[in-house]
UniProtKB/TrEMBL annotation:
One of its GO terms (cellular component) is plasma membrane. Belongs to the G-protein coupled receptor 1 family. Putative odorant or sperm cell receptor. This is Olfactory receptor. One of its GO terms (molecular function) is olfactory receptor activity. It is a multi-pass membrane protein. It comes from Sus scrofa (Pig). Its main location: membrane. The chain crosses the membrane at residues 25-48, 60-82, 102-120, 141-158, 199-226. The lineage of its organism: Eukaryota, Metazoa, Chordata, Craniata, Vertebrata. InterPro entries: GPCR_Rhodpsn (IPR000276), GPCR_Rhodpsn_7TM (IPR017452), Olfact_rcpt (IPR000725).
Length: 235
């Protein structure tokens, strides 16, 4: 613990738009307007999906989780960005940076995986409608969501923990508005090539695999819809 305290500063200086300070006010206004709107919209989706029994279906169950994720995802960074853009204080404590790092990447990783699951739900609903209720039953939906959260947490905790243990050699300046893994790796000293390579591989996996799954699902949906239209045309 003593070694970690010596190699890590008590706080970080976030440079943000230090080279373009005129951008701070417009961005502050945009975030100040859009953040409450996004929160209200997501809360409305959660309440309507929960209170209306007609919406108790797998699609709205996943949508509720997505809205909750969006709220947590934006809340992990936007309030801190507003604080820094609207004030003269441009620092964040080491603990605050670590907390933001974990939450930001947990929510981001989980959201990528959840979008893939939602595309699978639509694939089953359209391409296998007779088996939809059997495949996408409540237990399956809960299991899928739990797996998605576990996957996002595993990704974030492993990557963030390794990054936070990189020696910074007293460097406490981050050229960004928030604490992110690539920014901390860039600020670290010593050998960090393996960390950069690992981060690249994991990020490609977390982005490319869900994206391919989503594209494959909607390609299958498009093919099924095209077949239906072709059959109707022949009639």
């Amino acid at each position: 613990m003593e070694r970690i305290n010596k190699s890590h500063p008590e706080e970080f200086i976030l440079l943000g738009f230090a080279d373009h300070p005129w951008l701070e006010l417009p961005l502050f206004i945009i975030l100040l307007l859009t953040y409450p709107m996004a929160m209200v919209g997501n809360i409305a989706i959660i309440l309507v999906s929960t209170l209306d029994s007609r919406l108790h279906s797998p699609m709205y169950f996943f949508l509720t989780n997505l809205s909750f994720l969006d709220m947590c995802y934006t809340t992990s960074i936007v309030p801190q960005m507003l604080f820094h853009l609207g004030g003269s204080e441009k620092t964040i404590s080491y603990l605050g940076c670590a907390i933001q790092l974990y939450f930001f990447h947990i929510m981001g990783g989980t959201e990528c995986l959840l979008l893939a699951i939602m595309s699978f739900d639509r694939y089953v609903a359209i391409c296998k409608p007779l088996h939809y209720t059997l495949i996408m039953n409540r237990c399956t939906c809960i299991l899928l969501v739990a797996t998605v959260w576990l996957g996002g947490m595993t990704y974030a905790v492993s990557e963030a923990t390794v990054t936070l243990h990189l020696p910074l050699c007293g460097h406490n300046t981050l050229d960004h508005l928030i604490c992110e893994i690539p920014v901390l790796i860039k600020a670290a000293c010593g050998e960090k090539g393996s960390n950069e390579l690992t981060l690249s591989v994991v990020c490609i996996f977390m982005l490319a695999v869900p994206l391919c799954f989503i594209l494959a699902s909607y390609a299958s949906i498009g093919h099924a819809v095209f077949k239906i239209k072709s059959s109707e045309g022949r009639k």
